[in-house]
Amino acid sequence: MNRKLLRVFAGAALTIAASWAVPARAQMSEVKEKPPIYAYVSNWAIPRAQWGEMEKANGADQKILEKAMASGAIIGYGDDTALVHEVDGSTHDNWWASYSMAGLLSTLEQFYANGSATSPVLASSTKHWDEIFVSRYYNWHPGSYKGVYTRGLVYKLKADAPNDAVDTLAKNLFVPYFEKLLAEGAIHEYDIDTQAIHTASPDMFFVFFVAANGDGLDKANASLREMRKSNPMMGPAFGSMSDFSAHRDFLARTNATYK
Length: 259
Description:
The protein is α+β, with helices and mostly antiparallel strands. The protein is 39% helix and 31% strand. It has helices spanning 10-27, 51-60, 62-71, 101-114, 120-123, 165-184, 214-230, 234-241, and strands at residues 37-45, 76-82, 92-98, 127-140, 143-156, 187-195, 204-211, 248-258. The chain has an eight-stranded antiparallel β-barrel.
């Protein structure tokens, strides 16, 4: 995965992986990387008076996204409205995902071609930035979901974390945790990401999941507490790899469609 090449401290990494091996495999078969999925995310800080116009603009984008999905160029798309607002953060974002960079960019070019990329509501934004993520650990329930909730978690690896730190965390912690929630219907989707185009530190990694409703968020929190109790090594193992002072959270209301 895309991240800075750091020195390996093999003994510590093996100890951490061993501490998780039994509980993780007790829940599911061995976790393996999947083919990479790329996601293009456009973040916008829209003045509050224009939020209604942003909703209309999102609706107008559906034709392009539906056509791209039908052609196989993309395998998912959606939009988010922030529920916990930051002073300098975004209020809205639009995203779509593909098995290829070509699929992402061909869809982006459609928005440039029809003029929606320069629509009045987007021109009213006070800040804008784009990101391209790549994920090899993910899963979802196919379908369309309106008014669900996305929880995002941002982490930074420590300078002495092993090269395969994200893989170790995904295989032994995140994937077993999210697969259980997915099977229970508490969430509809999850992905563990790094940036494919680095606009932030290469040591950053990102975890997103889409909860079916508010109860789904509560179930996710309860499941995490249960996991910590059953595996007391989880916290120290995670802490040995990540700089928790850089951790940030994200909560949004989401409309999403997955193939």
